[in-house]
Design goal:
two-stranded antiparallel sheet, about 140 residues, mainly alpha, 2 domains
């Protein structure tokens, strides 16, 4: 969505307008097409994706990513000041990050609770038997 907003804002600008807006180098490399990069111009790569094969570590990374995205949207909103056609979608995206953060937090608590349950087994026996004498840990 942010890429679409940028494209709509830059569609039809001239090279001179891009240069005046401080986008000369970007315009030289990409025209007015959207090219995923950081604000400093570093192109997107998969190094920002952190997967460790550990559910707690992965969920912590997800939580951090949602907060970073929320902070980025807030900064973009601050830059847009009086343009509701840009600010309204950015606010929507920011709120979506807040909800995602809440859901990942719930998932993290669930995983932590599940991993905290002690499951002790002996050969053919389970000490976590329920009232019907069935093993409830599988």
């Amino acid at each position: 969505m942010v890429g679409t907003i940028v494209h709509q804002l830059t569609d039809g600008i001239t090279a001179e307008e891009a240069e005046k807006a401080g986008l000369g180098a970007y315009y030289t490399d990409h025209g007015v097409d959207v090219y995923p990069s950081a604000a400093a111009g570093y192109p997107f790569d998969a190094n920002c994706l952190a997967c460790k094969g550990d559910p707690i570590a992965n969920l912590q990374e997800d939580l951090a990513a949602e907060q970073k995205a929320r902070a980025t949207y807030e900064k973009l909103i601050n830059l847009c000041k009086d343009n509701p056609d840009v600010i309204d979608p950015l606010r929507y995206l920011r709120e979506r990050e807040v909800v995602h953060f809440q859901r990942f937090g719930e998932a993290l608590r669930g995983v932590q609770d599940k991993l905290a349950e002690r499951r002790i087994h002996t050969i053919g026996n389970c000490i976590n038997r329920n009232k019907e004498n069935n093993c409830d840990c599988l």
